[in-house]
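Notes on consecutive records. When two proteins share a document, each keeps its own sequence and its own token line. Never mix them. Below: protein one.
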Amino acid sequence: MMPSTRAARTALHAFCACCALALACAGPSPDGGDPSSSDEDAPSASADGTSDLDRAGRLARLLSTIAADSMEGRRTGTRGAQLTARYLAAELARYGVEPGAPEGGFFQRVPLARVGASGGRLVLPSPDIDFDTVDAGALLTDEVNVVGLIRGSDPAVADKAVVIGAHFDHVGVGPPVAGDSIYNGADDDGTGTVAVLEIARDLASATPPRRTVVVLLSTAEESGLLGTRWYIRNPAVPLERTVADFQIEMIGRPDSLAGGFGRGWLTGYERTTMGDQLAEAGSPIVPDPRPEMRFFFRSDNLPFAMEGIPAHTLSSYNMHSDYHQPSDEVDVVDFEHMAVLVDAAVAAVRFLADGPTPRWKEGGRAGLPGG
């Protein structure tokens, strides 16, 4: 059982992070996907000491690494974000997940540039912005999505895909609050990121799914969903063969409006048949209790939905005040709640990969192109 006091939890999480950082220094390079290439600063996947951990313990180890102060808040364009990407790819490789970036390896390069006053806005290449005309100092050349594949086993549907995703970037270092200037983003969206790792781990070690599962850990969500928008332009599996997208965002604390411990909610639940199908299968995932917040339009499911793909985000965000604050730390994450919700997410992804495909309901595309 996890220690019950906050001080004990903090000490344990710090110990887990130090172990993950110190065990080995292998990490995939951004231009390849070879987990054996070295980087003395990169945290690495560790095969030691994890087999005896339960789900909550593994989640704590993973999150304590990517939300450590050494990752400097994982802001896109920083060393912390790049180290995080290396760590995520090394974990996927350790689980036996196949590299899935369209250009080969685990890393899908995402071309970005800083534009505007003081270079305050990140953008992708577009008809309006020719990167050949952008000052070289404004270009970000090392930003990546981390993409893996778990191949489908049923020849009738293996060419179809379900995408599971979360964004690993956060907002970096900012104005100090109570002496802390590192905005670690443990819940946002460290919890979603490590949940996706756990789902990939389970799927890769069990009976292969009928459909292919694309694991998408995206960058630059905080800058306008840019990593996912780039994936949409350059998918690992063509969009016309992508049947669903299941994102995970901020599941580190129970939400009383969703039913509390071990339960989560789905953005845009009423728009497609996905939520109803999961409910019929016994899932504890319920409709978004705060539709007025328009979360459906605020996460990485949106670019998929705009392409006509049934797409939703699982969350248990309870509107806590640590959102985008330095206080979004590992020591306030409820790993027992999170582990139960990840169990539900594993079952949901397995259902999407093996069962009937979700469909848009009448009026479900309201607010979207063609809706």
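Protein two starts on the next line and is unrelated to protein one.
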Amino acid sequence: MTAQKAPAGLRAPGRRLWSSVLDEYDLDEHERAMLLEACRTIDVLDQLDAAVRRDGPLVESPQGTRAHPAAVEARQQRIALARLLAALRLPAGEDGDHQATARPQRRVGVRTPYGIRGGQGRGGSLEAARVRSLARAAEAGS
């Protein structure tokens, strides 16, 4: 793997993540862009954590005691970080574990919850559904 210098603007936590990933894996350009966003997110989380440690997890406000705004934002940043890291498809596991060293399979195409089948698979058309319905009705009537 080729060593690549961390982009300017990253703080220590982000630089550590950048180096640890690129020391192990060769990433495509779009994957490096996701890694950069993950590194920036790590840096933001570090700053938010410092604010919560400094002020405590609860703060006083005109509405009473509330969760520290930095703690609330950190929760959102952790979700974003988890999604970025999942999108990178980096393996997790012990050394020597074949599953850990193989990068997960890429998904092909766009996944959507609903779609028009248009004749694919079982019941791809309205006509096929009508025929099945008539066949069931005929069987029930026999």
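For the record: The CA atoms of residues 91 and 103 lie 6 Å apart.
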